[in-house]
Each structure stands twice: as structure tokens, then as C-alpha cells.
Amino acid sequence: MTTLTQAVFWLVQASALLVFFVQASAGLVALWAVSHFLRAIGLTLAFHRYFAHRAFKMNRVARFVWAFIGTAAMQKGPLWWAGHHVNHHKYADRDGDPHSPMVSGVYYAHIGWFLNDTKHDRLEANNPVVRDFGKFPEIRFLNTYFFVPPLLLAIAMFAIGGFPWLVWGFCLPTVTLAHATFAINTVNHLFGWRRFDTIDESRNNPFTAFFAVGEGWHNNHHRYQRAARNGFYWWEFDPTYYVIRAMQLVGLAWDVQPVPERIYAEARAVKARRLQQHTTSVLQDSGTIGLELAEDAD
Ligand SMILES: [Zn+2]
Ligand SMILES: [Zn+2]
To answer: What spacing in Å lies between the alpha carbon of 233 and ligand 1's midpoint?
Structure first.
């Protein structure tokens, strides 16, 4: 990233503080929510589940629309984003992972890698994302001119509602969405629980799942990347999946990849094994206590 784009990044980050200079209202909070969550769906549905993981298929128009919305999140272009994400899975928490808090520390995994990654910021021609989606001119356009959609959004916000709309509809949600996304790379590799014993440090976390529209079920996702859903059960909130299902119902999405039964069976097996280990250790503990009491009684 050039110095100019880095300066723009920090300028936008700082611009979120402008909310303290605009009187909040229910309408402006709703505007923040629409701008944050709609662009979040663009990122997760198009950049992540479609380009990086091919969890479903959609036509070229729908793909462009969602990719445009995702690019408006100001997290660079779809090929760059999804291409690096493939490398994250390939090297998860090992050398070669572009953003692992285990390998390179929390700040670098959260922001540093995104701004200036001298070691991993490269997409080989054989990267599956570049190889297969780089041939579509409209996707290449978004990837090269990734600053156009966010700029248009900022201009549109200002044109419609002046300074308050610019701040609540662009500045603040761009920053909250950046951190909601980055948190998947940091928080979800540090805090939460692990349903599956994957070789990485991925964790499930309902808090990040909420702000990143379903991506917080990250241990599920590391176990089985191909599924269109990251929340593997109905109680794991996954709005991105609901949108994909809705698209499927009206014929806009197809070949929606399910979670295979063997993965659910594995989840049950891991749970049963841990329960058994837990019961055994409790029994061992009470055995020790019993012995001490017996000695005390002597
Ligand atoms: Zn991960
Ligand atoms: Zn992924």
C-alpha cells in the first residue's frame, strides 16, 4: 500500500470520532446499521463465501452487485481480499499466514498486515481466486479501482444528508466494519470456544458473529470451509447464510454447499469425548479428596 492509501486509511479511522460532533438520532443510528450490515454482507457473501470458498453459485449480475457492495467496505478489492484469505486457510496460524496473532502479534494481525505486509502481500498467478475470477473484467475493475465504490458512497451520503449522513452513513460504519472484519482474524483466533480440534487456533465467538454477520463461527468455518453457512446450527446466528438461502429460494443462488453429515458426526464425537474426559477427571479429583479426608480422620 502506498503512503497515500495508508494516510487515507488512518484519516477515515479518525473520522469516526466526528460522531461526537453530530447530534445522534434514531434515524442516524439506523443509517449506521444499514451501512455497516449491508456492506458486511457484501464482504462475507461475495468476498469470503463466494470468491474465496465457492460455497454457492450466482449469476454474473448478482455477483457484481454484491462484489460492488463489498468493495464499498473499503477493504481493498475482491481478488486481493479473497486471494489473501485463501492463504490464511492454507497456512492458518503457521508461517505464511498473512494475519495470525500467533505468528506476528495482535496489532499486525489486526491492522498491520492490511496496511503494509512486505512478507505476504503477494498473489501468485496460480492463486485460485485470481486464476478463476481475474478473467472477468468487471471483477478486475473493482479490484484495481477499489477506492471507487467507497468514494461514491461517501459522496452519495454527503449529497443526500450533508455532514450528519457522511459521518453516520460512511465514516463511523466504515470503521466499525473494518474492526468487525479484522476481529475475525484476531479475536476469533484468541477468544471463544472450539467445537472442533482443528490444527489452527480458530474459535467460535457469538459477539464477533453478530457484528460480522455470521463470520464469528470461525472454528466451524476452519473445520469445513466450503459450507455456505458458518453457523452450523439454527441457534448460531448467521445472517449471511439467510441471505444466500433467500437468494436460493428466488433462483439467484444455486449449488449451495451444505455442511456434510460427517462433520456433524465429528462435532458429536468430539463433544462426547470431552464429556467423558471431564467426567473421568472429576472422579479422579473426588478420589484424591476422599483420600485426604481419610488421612485427616486418622
Ligand atoms: Zn481464521
Ligand atoms: Zn474463510
So the answer is: 19
How close is the Cα of 60 to the center of ligand 1, in Å? 28
Same domain, 182 and 196: yes
Same-domain status, 251 and 270: no
Q: Closest-lying ligand to the alpha carbon of 92?
A: 1
Ligand nearest to the CA of 190: 1
Residues 191 and 169 occupy one common structural domain = yes
* pLDDT number for residue 16: 94
Same domain, 121 and 26: yes
The total of structural domains in the chain comes to 2
Distance 189 CA to ligand 1 centre (A): 6
Indicate the Cα dihedral angle 72, 213, 178, 52, nearest 10°. Answer: -70
How close is the Cα of 210 to the center of ligand 1, in Å?
Answer: 16
> Which residues of the chain have a pLDDT value below 70?
1, 282-298
**Shared domain check, 232 and 271:** no
Domain that holds residue 95: 3-258
Same domain, yes or no: 264 and 253:
no
In this predicted structure, what is the pLDDT of residue 298?
A: 46
